[in-house]
Structures are given as C-alpha cells and as structure tokens.
Design brief:
The complex is a heterotetramer, with two copies of chain A (419 residues) and two copies of chain C (140 residues). With 419 residues, chain A is an alpha/beta fold. Chain A folds into two domains: 134 residues, Alpha-Beta Complex (Aspartate Aminotransferase, domain 1); 256 residues, Aspartate Aminotransferase, domain 2 (3-Layer(aba) Sandwich). Chain A is 39% helix and 15% strand. In chain A, strands 2-8-7-6-5-3-4 form a seven-stranded mixed beta sheet, with helices on both faces. In chain A, strands 11-12-15-14 form a four-stranded antiparallel beta sheet, with helices on one face. Chain A has a two-stranded parallel ribbon with strand order 1-13. In chain A, α2 packs antiparallel against α10, α3 packs across α10 and α12 crosses α14. The longest helix of chain A has 20 residues. Chain C has a single domain, classed as Sufe protein. Chain: A (Alpha-Beta Complex), CATH 3.90.1010. Chain C is globular and about 45 Å long. The chains are: A alpha/beta (419), C alpha+beta (140). The interface between A and B is large, with 92 and 92 residues. The structure holds pyridoxal-5'-phosphate (2 copies).
Chain lengths: 419, 419, 140, 140
Amino acid sequence: MVTAHVQPGVLDGAAFRADFPVFDRPHRTGRPLSFLDSAASSQKPRVVIDAVADAYAHHYANVHRGIYELSEDATHRFEAARDALARFIGAPSAREVVFVRNATEAINLVAYSWGRTNLHAGDLILATEMEHHANLVPWQQLAAATGARIEYVAITDDGHLDLDDLRARLARGPRLLAVTHVSNALGTINPIVEITRMAHEAGALVLLDAAQSVPHMPVDVAALDVDFAVLSGHKMFGPSGIGALWGRRDLLDAMPPFMTGGSMITRVTLDGADWNEVPWKFEAGTPAIAEAAGLAAAIDYLEGIGMAKVRAHERFLFDQAWAALSDMPGIRFLGPDDSDEHAGVISFMVDGVHPHDVATILDGEGVAVRAGHHCAQPVMLRYDLPATTRASFSVYNDLDDIVRLTDAIRVTQRTFGTA
Amino acid sequence: MVTAHVQPGVLDGAAFRADFPVFDRPHRTGRPLSFLDSAASSQKPRVVIDAVADAYAHHYANVHRGIYELSEDATHRFEAARDALARFIGAPSAREVVFVRNATEAINLVAYSWGRTNLHAGDLILATEMEHHANLVPWQQLAAATGARIEYVAITDDGHLDLDDLRARLARGPRLLAVTHVSNALGTINPIVEITRMAHEAGALVLLDAAQSVPHMPVDVAALDVDFAVLSGHKMFGPSGIGALWGRRDLLDAMPPFMTGGSMITRVTLDGADWNEVPWKFEAGTPAIAEAAGLAAAIDYLEGIGMAKVRAHERFLFDQAWAALSDMPGIRFLGPDDSDEHAGVISFMVDGVHPHDVATILDGEGVAVRAGHHCAQPVMLRYDLPATTRASFSVYNDLDDIVRLTDAIRVTQRTFGTA
Amino acid sequence: MDNLYRDFILEHYRAPHNHGALDPHDLAFADSNPTCGDEMSMTLVLDASKQRVADVAFDGRGCAISQASASIMTDELRGMTLDEVRDMDPRDVVANLGVPIGAARLKCALLGYKVLQGAVTGAISHWPDEADVLQKGPVS
Amino acid sequence: MDNLYRDFILEHYRAPHNHGALDPHDLAFADSNPTCGDEMSMTLVLDASKQRVADVAFDGRGCAISQASASIMTDELRGMTLDEVRDMDPRDVVANLGVPIGAARLKCALLGYKVLQGAVTGAISHWPDEADVLQKGPVS
Ligand SMILES: Cc1ncc(COP(=O)(O)O)c(C=O)c1O
Ligand SMILES: Cc1ncc(COP(=O)(O)O)c(C=O)c1O
C-alpha cells in the first residue's frame, strides 16, 4: 500500500523534476516520464548542463598552463573540480584524485598499473560474487596476465556478502580485495568499515567500487579507510565521459603510469621518459575539460541538497516500493529486505514473465526501468535467473512513480495472464 | 606584408567568429581575443555546445539498449555519431570506429592490445623524430615491456621527414610505423600515401596520428591506405572527452580487448569472459554519450564549410603570416617554407626572448599563442631549442589576427630591447 | 511497441513449437544474447542426403519475443536445404513476427536466427548489423 | 601581468647574478620545468663547518622569470645555514620578484627554488602545491 502523503524529512520529487529538463519532454504515450533507471545513469539538472555549456562557451582552452588568460582560466576550473570532488568524497588531498572516463577505467588503471607491478604468480586477488563486471573482468585479466589466482566472496541467499566466507578467504592472504559499496544488481549496501578492518588485518588492500554509493549517500573514503575508490560522474548528475580514481598518495606515487603521452611526463627523449607527479602522471593527453566543470556543478547540486537527505529520500521510496510490490501477487525480490542495508535499487521478478518483456510493457506505460543482467552475470547465476527487472530511485522520483510502477506491473500481468 | 583584402575563395573569419561564443567574452585587456592556439584545442561553435546540451536535456540515458524509449533514443544517436565519424574520415565501416577519450588513448589502446600480443623481443617499431609524445612514449613503453626495439625516422633541417632514412630503416623490417600526418610542433604535412606505400612494401603496418590533420584538411583513411588512425574530438570543434581510433576490421577483430568491464563482454562467469564484437569490445563501461552527439554536430559543422575550404583558408593565413613574420627582424622559423607541405601551424623563435616570455607579452596584448615544447621534446632537441612559440589557425582567424600577432611581437622586442 | 504482445506472439511463447532437444541429431549449436544473457540451443536432424532439414528443436529460456521468434522460424525449416537456411534473410525472421520490433529488442527477435546460423555454419555467427535489418526491413 | 617585465626583472635576466658553475663544489643539482623543458643546474660551496652556504652559482637557459628569480634568490643564500635553506618559503621566492605571478608562470618563478631544494636535500623535490603558494602568497 502506498501511503499518499510525504513523510516528514523526505524531499519533494516534483520540485526536483522541475530542475531536470528531461521531464519536460513528453513520453510517446503522452504521459510524463517515470524514470526509474538512475542506477544505470542519472538524468542531468539544468545547472550541470549550463555549467558544461558555459565552460565551452566562455572558459574553454586546453588545460595545463597555456600561457594565456583563457587557458589559465580553464586550468584553474579543471583543478577546482578536482578539489571539489576530493572534498566531496573526503579525500585527504586533491592530489590523490585522478580523472578518468568512468569507474571502469579507474579499475582498469589500478589493475594494469598497480596490479601488473605488484602481483606475481600464485598471489591471491579477492573479489566478490556481487561485483559489477567492471570490478570482475579486469581482475580476471590481471590474474591471467600475472598467474595470480582469483577467488570470490560468496553472497548469502538474502543478498548479503557472506562475512564468514570473507574471513575464511582473507586468511589465505590475498593482496587485494575488490568490493562494491552498493550492489547495482541486488541493492545491497555492504558494511565497508567492517570489511576494510578485516581486510587490513589480513594485509590486503581494499579497492572500493563506489559507483553506486557516491551518488546516493554520504561517502567518506578516509572514514571508510579504503585504499582505492572509483566512481563515475554520469551516475551522480554529472556529465558522461568523466569519472575518478581516488587512491592513497603513497600507493599512487609508487605506481607506474597506465597510459602514456602528453602532460603525464616531465621529460621525453628518444631514449625514454620521466613521469610527472600524481595525479597528472595518470592523465595522459587532453582530459575531459568541460566535463570536469559539469561534475563540479553536479557536486554543488548534491551538496546543496545534502547527501543525508538524498539517502533518506531514496530509502523512503525503497521502503514504500518494497511494501507495495510485496502486496502484489507473483513478485519476487532480490537483496536484503531491511532498508538499512538496501540502497534505492529494487531488483525483482514477475512470475511467468521474462524481465525483457516486463521492461517493454512498462515502457509502453511510460515507466523506464532496466531489465537484464545489469552487468552482473555472476549474480544472475548465483540465483539461477536469466535476468531481473530493476527499478532505481533518485531525488526526482516520488510516490507517484511507485504507483505507476505497480500499475504497469499489473498491466504486464494481465497481458501475460499470469495474475 | 599583410594584404588588406581577402583572397577569392577564402573564408570570412569574422563571420565564423560570430558562431563561436568565446569571442563574445572580452579579454582582460578589453580588446577582442585573438585566438591562435587551435592546434592545442579548438574553440567550440554554438551548434556543438547546443548539441551537447540538447543531448543531456532531452535524449539522455545510458546507451546499449535499455529497453525504453529514452535509452533507445540515446543509443541511436550515439551510434549515429559513430556513423558520421566513419563517413567523415572515409572509414569503410562504422564498425571500425572505436570511441575513446582522445588520440592519446587511441594510441595506447593499439600499443597495449595489438602491441603486447604481436610484438616480441627483437622486433622493431618505427616512429619518427617529429612525433607528439602521445605517439612516442606508448611505443617506448611497449618496447620496454616486450623487448622490442624502437627506432626513429630522422627529420631534415627544414622540417621534412627524411624519406631516405625512412627507406633505410624500413629495410630492417619493422612491424609497425607510427607516423603523424601533420606535426604539431613543425607544421609539416607528411606525404602519407607515399610513406604508407613504402611501409607496406616493407611489411610494416602504419598507424597514422591524424589528430592535427582531420580538423584542418580532407582526410580519407581508405585512400591513405593506413592501418590505424587516431584523432581527438576537441581539436575539431567537438567536445573534450571524446576521440576515436579507426582500425582495419581484420586487425581489430584479431586484437584482444584493452580495458575490460561492462558492455564489452557477451558472457561473464566467475571463470572468465567472452568478448563482444568490435567496436564494442574496446569500449568498456559507460562511454562519452553526450560528447558523441557534440562530435556529430562538429562534423556537421565542418562538412557544412567543406574541408577543402578549411584547408584553403588556413593555408592562405599561413602564407600571409609567414610572409609578414619573414619581413620582421630577429624571427626564425621551424618547418618547411612551402605551404604545400605546411599546415596552419607556425612555430617560431624571437631572438633573445624566451618563448615563455613571448607568450606572456602576447597575452598582454590579447593574443593567445602557445609556448613550450608542444609535447614534442625530441623536436626541440633536434633543433637545439628549449621551446618555441607557436601560432595556429582555424576558420575563425583572419588577417586581423596576423596584424595583431606581428604587432604584439614588436611589443615583445621593444620590451626586451632586442629589435 | 504497445501491440508487441499480440495473442499470436503470446501463444507461441506459452506453447512454443519445436521445443526441446533432438537426440540423436546431426547439428547442434548454442549461443546467447549478450544484452540479457538469454541462452538458446538448437538441434537439427538432416534427411538421408544430409543436405536437408528433417527435424529441428530449440531449447532454453528467454523472453516472449525470442521464444516466439524461434518457434515461428523453426516451423519453416523442415524440408529446406542447408544452403537455403544459410541464405535466410534475418529481415524475414523479424517480419514473420508480425509486430514492430525496435532496436532494443532486435537481438531478442534474432537470437533463434543466430543460433540456427551457428548450427548450419558450424561457427559462432555475427549478429546481423542492426542498421541493415532495421532500415531495410519491412517493419519498424 | 602586463607589468611583469619591469626593469628590475629584465636587468636580472640580462645580467644574472651568480651565474655559471662552481668547481669544485660541495653540492650540485639539476632539474627541469616540465611545462617548457627549461633546465637549470646549481652548484654550492659550503663553509668549513659544511653547514653554511659560502658560495652559489646557477646555470642553464630559461625565460626571464626563471632566470631573474634564480638570480634574486641566489643573492640571498650566502651565509645561510643548510637548515635555513631547507626551510625557505617558496612564497617568499615568488614575492621577492616584486611582480604578480600567475599560475601559468609559477613553475618558472620556482624552478630555481626547486633546484636549490634538490641540492640541499639530495633528492628530487616536489613542486610546491600551487594552491599553497598562490592562495597565501603576498602577491597574486
Ligand atoms: C600530433 C598530435 N598527436 C596527438 C596529440 C594528442 O592529443 P590528445 O591530447 O587529445 O590525446 C596531439 C595534441 O596535442 C597532437 O598535436
Ligand atoms: C557497481 C557498479 N560498478 C561499476 C559500474 C561501471 O560504471 P561505468 O560504466 O560508468 O564505468 C557500474 C555501472 O553500472 C556499477 O553499477
């Protein structure tokens, strides 16, 4: 049952929709769009779009110190975006923030640069069964290239990381634990402080996939005490084409570059090259300049709301949606049922209907959800499902979206005659 | 001597400046900006800025087939941008166009993926002494990783590639020749058809660095008969954060992925993964979505002008600038003096004044040029220079920019008492 | 799109024709749809000439579109020569569904076709280029 | 910026103080400015205690800002203890130029400082963080 009035302390989704021009565009059904796929990529507020346009229109030049006004301006804004991101995620220093394309590139950077230098045949890498392919395949490739072994921490039937299994595997002395903060396929929020403590006691470094947490809850990499963290701008109201790796300074300093070329060197001769300092050592070539300005605007926008409020709002929607879907026949869920441990992401099955068909029928009702393996095929294998349907929330969603979601599922069930 | 009237067939720079909002912003001197650093990165026309904004405002969702209207729309536009770029550079198929961040990443992709698979100890890689660091350091790193050797084709005193030296080195059977179409430090346009013929006869593949040619002249990768070509969107009126690798389909098909993660796989289990088809095999994670839309708009804009006209205009400006600077005392040039073989890039020295100081004084006059090694330190070593000052042209420049450039150089010489 | 789930499709989905596996068989192949992970296998029995399809069956789980498409397509196969099967036009497979198929569901509609091509060519086949199938296809 | 090239700077540039190389010397170091490739070397002679700078010289080619900055800075060094040299504040080096230095030329202004720190610490020193020098510096 969806309660009709907004809970105290929870945000007004309609007011936020007014900030996002996409909601001005009518869906082909003529109905407003109910966008429930923010976990794949968020929509963009006008302030971010304007910041990108303004960066191109009035502050654009290549960065890294052209000796003229426009380039100094562009460089200053680019580095200010790095400062803003460092502050936003609690990084001790902006020098520890490397701009990349997306979370995927950040993980590949660590796997190539740290991994191929530090891992040797027989070494153990630990990942978990709930990782996104971005936090799995690079480690599998690293293992194949170095002869290291890779093991996976199991997940429980109700979608938690199995901490006993983690403990047992940590006892084998892995060099690195790659773990997600929030599972994009299950919605699970992992207890990172506890996990990091266990991993560090066992001598393993921790790489945190924060792609699904930074946009949706307060995240402080120093407080979480991880060693690396990765994120994508496009999931946090920012532009596509920009993301970041955060890493402990001593680790980054000791790592060789990943890609090479302009700006990451101090000196090049025909015989070889010397590397620039971090973070520039890892930023070869012309970076995503206007996109950094857009990311800074997205961070401003999120800070203006307050991450605790964002989390409270999405948690409220999760609770309401979970309750509403639980009341319906023929719906099964993945992931923990306690919203303390569940982000605003609901993965579910409609009995008798393939998730692809669910998504198509929901689209016909103007409700945008994702269907598939969510780039987490091992999770699907774990629960013996071909795919799931996933609804995920952001500040621009409200109870109306939940009503439309449940109504559209009823249409699906009627179409397939399953309920 | 700068001729005061515009030559027939040459473009009207002022009319183009009206398309680029950056020229509305007054320089701190109060004078209009004279922007002569397009070789580092071009300014952006309003149509490109609007296309990016529109992509975010009305057509944005993650690509690769979310099963809903907005995602289909976004995917369609993303792939249409790939089609547009393929057509623009004469690629036989859009499936051969891989989106990356910039030319630098494209070269690193080939060096890691093709290079580490195909090169072995003792193999020879050929680059040239005039390459940008982006087309040097990745090959040096590849050589260090595989035990391959690397040699450099010499440049002549007047800034040509030494084709006799090329022939001699090709006789040693290199596997790959990495060569730039246009040198960003010298302005030289290399005779690629001839070079490719020589290289192919010797059994070497050719990777063309087209970062400085595609924005400024007609380029057809099929007609040039190269095997790989790389470019950056930001140098061709497009957004930052997007660039491309073009490669022959059979080569790309045979190459392993570079970065791994979402969308570049077909199947992932805990034991390993299968790769998607090209080009998606090389595009791990969420790509630069709105940036692709902006790049498509930039291509439209360039095609609307016509690349032959762009080249004619920049060649005219080069001829005029070369003549005007030649008339001044104490100026020395780098690169060929014949505009058949020289793009719209002039690298010069002001006797007795360091290029950094030249650039600072020019900036004080509202003239934006670049000073430094232009990410081509071996070129500087070759001519025993610490750095040069570089002016480069685009459609929004005209004779007025050349007057301002020469006037500002006179101010420099007066300040330093050198002329 | 809203009439994608016509009774015709749903009937094939609920009771697919030629479902299961043939054993023994002459040809077999399995493949998957990367966008959803759906997997499908196909087994074929040839006639005495070994050049013509005598019987066919497909198996695996998938969405209504992929199941109905495979069900409808396999109905056509008996009696066809292997060359004819290899020459099949993916646009016809899509058209035979009788409902508009957009880019997002195209791979679903073509999964059966792709597995079939794998079976008769003996190698993993490429997905037909989307633009070719959608642009020129009789339906959109 | 337009008064960056005051006579004071240009005089130091044209006739830099303490230019050349000391041989023999107690300490030597060379480093470069990655933004332009300018290279500078520095040689120091210590007094009998080996704790105090007796003489210093710098060499290399560079822009007016880096040459003037090194010229002005090296004038201050004689008699300083090595600890005092290590404790030098890069903001003072910039301030002593007496002209506003923006971010684009900051490394030019600090190249001499960086080479000096390399000489007295015996290791490649980091560039001071730009924000620290510019934000809190007395000039902008
Ligand atoms: C000839 C050449 N190659 C490669 C590059 C590198 O381009 P990007 O920084 O966009 O990767 C440049 C840019 O300066 C260039 O001029
Ligand atoms: C948990 C998680 N990690 C990593 C990624 C990869 O993000 P990107 O595609 O931006 O690299 C995603 C995005 O789907 C994700 O959900």
